[in-house]
């Protein structure tokens, strides 16, 4: 009899548990927000440079405060995670090195119209032509195709694009890239270019004008790319931060100002420690 009761209790617990398995949503999170997956990487380079883990920590909070529902990690999203994602934001060195299973997952994600956002050297890998099919441009790993630290002066070429609403021709200390492999059909839509500064690594490419901010649309999917982020501090630049927020919203096929303009709802009085 005791065994039968125990079995019945286990069955009831299983059924009940199946109905209440979902945890309550975290307080302060927008229940209707766009779903963003942040794919970051391990820290590399010198202090203050390529701080991928810090980005994961800071931008998971920032995007949540701007109304997004955020997931992420130091690994690419799984096929299951991609099913519930509007846009994948990538800030990880050499993210172009993908396993065949990961390529297949991203192919299915893009085919259904999933958005991609790339920061800095995330579009670097062994096959820039492949990366260009996803992001509109790719950079070959192992080549000298970078300026290293230098004044990067933006020339905004499409002031009318809503993503660039707050962006002007500012100069930041960062790194720019050249010798890119570009998609051709369709081509990228250039938002801002940079004339390569005269550094030792730039060599004869000094003065070459290369796109550094762009969008790319193909087969119903969208990608937004910002090539800087070598120095992590530039993520906090007011103009850049707002441009990135708009680029993320655009890539996720949401209103371009959805993240920038989001206002958190007022907290209930009991949360504020007050009584009606």
Number of strands: 12
CATH architecture: 3-Layer(aba) Sandwich
Query: In CATH's first tier, which class applies?
Result: Alpha Beta
Task: Output mean pLDDT.
Answer: 90
Largest pleated sheet:
9 strands, mixed
Q: Which ranges are low-confidence, i.e. pLDDT below 50, for 5 or more consecutive residues? A: 7-16
CATH homologous superfamily caption = Class I glutamine amidotransferase (GATase) domain
- Fraction of residues in helix: 25-40%
Number of domains: 1
Label the structural class: alpha/beta
Strand fraction band? 15-25%
Instruction: Please give the alpha-carbon distance between the first and last residues.
Output: 54 Å
Strand order of the largest sheet: 2-1-3-4-12-11-10-7-8
**CATH topology label:** Rossmann fold
Gyration radius (Cα, Å) is: 22 Å
- Report the order of strands and helices: HEHEHEHEEHEEEEEEEH
Shape: globular
Count of DSSP helices?
6
Report on this structure.
The chain is of the alpha/beta class. It has a single domain, classed as Rossmann fold (3-Layer(aba) Sandwich). It is 25% helix and 23% strand. It is built from six helices and twelve strands. The strands form two sheets. It has a nine-stranded mixed sheet. The longest helix has 18 residues, at 2-19. The chain is globular. The protein starts with a helix and ends in a 25-residue tail after the last helix. Mean pLDDT is 90; it is low at 7-16.
List keywords for this structure.
276 residues; alpha/beta; Rossmann fold; nine-stranded mixed β-sheet; three-stranded mixed β-sheet; 12 strands; 25% helix
